[in-house]
Amino acid sequence: MLSLELIRQDPEYVRHALERRGEEPRLDKILSLDQERRELQARSDVLRAKRNEVSKTIGRMQGDRSELIAQMRQVGDEISKLDLNHSGIQQELDTLLLELPNIPLEDVPDGKGEEDNVVVRTWGEVPTFDFEPLPHWDLGEHLGIIDFQRGVKLAGSRFFVLMGQGARLERALISFMLDLHTGKNGYREAQLPAMVRRDVMVGSGNLPKFGDNLYHDEEDDLWLIPTAEVPLTNLHRDEILPPGSLPLRYTASTPCFRREKAAAGRDTRGIKRVHQFQKVEMYKFVEPQSSDEELESLVVDAEAVCQALKLPYRVLKLCATELGFASAKSYDLEMWAPGSQEWLEVSSCSNCTDFQARRANIKYRCKEGATPAFVHTLNGSGLALPRVIISILENGQRKDGSVEVPQALHPYTGFEVIEGP
């Protein structure tokens, strides 16, 4: 959530920043409601002060007090009406504020679409083949490790089943990534619920704006998480973190659930864009002055996974219109998929500044006795499956149809080659 004080003090700055994202913010409406709300509050405060003063007078009176008591009943009725109006305006104001995305940082490039994202660096050699490389959907079926038909039979389109070495490969990847992040990169592992309350979704920035993309249990008002970022954001909800406790770094592996609504096309083939998938997440709570530096190190931690797997990738700095709702600055990591002939996003690393912390009320003290301030939060995939599986299959494929498994995974898989059933 954006600071209402910032909107009051410099509405043109906020307007310009959000227009960089392609937004048309209703700042005039927000400012008008804020002014009306403050006027109502001021009138209510004056009446409360008057009522308190008269109540003291009534308490000291010896004679007839009925007239003053009647007057104070009228004052109480007026206060109730003011409070009711104030509550309605506050609710409308909160709704508008929750719909505003985060403000891009100054060094975020301008742009109109993904073509304006900036390639920062590339790593690894794009492989060449002396045969026509196959896409993962053909490889997976040939090897008997991806069963699309049974996925559809069980749950419908955009679901799949991993079998045999495919299931083992995914389990190996998750264990490998968690071990890397906890053992080398300094993250603390968390095992999280896959369903959360409504206010948790609001705290991370998924509600109210993206409710149509989420799976919801209406009876209990619980929401299936689209990423571990959601519960990780809210681990310290409504807390004031003590001096010296930051940074806090967490990692978690969870299933992720999303109602993908992409148009029909090649994105619907294979396991690139599905309704349920596994992902390892990295998350940080940091002091504001270090958040930009922490973002760069977050990207390095995600790159470490790609490099350990020896899979070619590139890092992109996203332009303002491509930023996620809560993000002030983001980098994407994309792995090359030679069979599909495309770069696949396997991680998005974002600095959300104090945007999520305001929504979830997460603060810290820089020293004992200091006024609490909002933390900055950062998140990044470390990495997202099944796109890593796509890259492994398509980069590691051999002419006979088998697939070489990255060496870093051998201790986890127990096999070096996927040869099929």
Question: Please, could you describe this protein's structure?
Answer:
This protein is an alpha+beta fold and 421 residues long. It is 40% helix and 20% strand. It contains 13 helices and 18 strands. It has helices at 4-9, 11-20, 27-60, 66-98, 136-143, 148-155, 165-183, 198-204, 229-233, 291-309, 355-360, 387-396, 410-413, and strands at 118-123, 146-147, 161-162, 188-189, 195-197, 216-217, 222-224, 240-241, 248-257, 276-286, 313-317, 329-337, 342-351, 363-364, 373-374, 376-384, 403-404, 417-418. The strands form five sheets. The protein has an eight-stranded mixed sheet. α3 (27-60) packs antiparallel against α4. The longest helix is centred in the N-terminal third of the chain and has 34 residues, at 27-60. The model has no long low-confidence stretch (mean pLDDT 94).
Outline of the structure:
The protein has 13 helices and 18 strands. It has 421 residues and is α+β, with helices and mostly antiparallel strands.
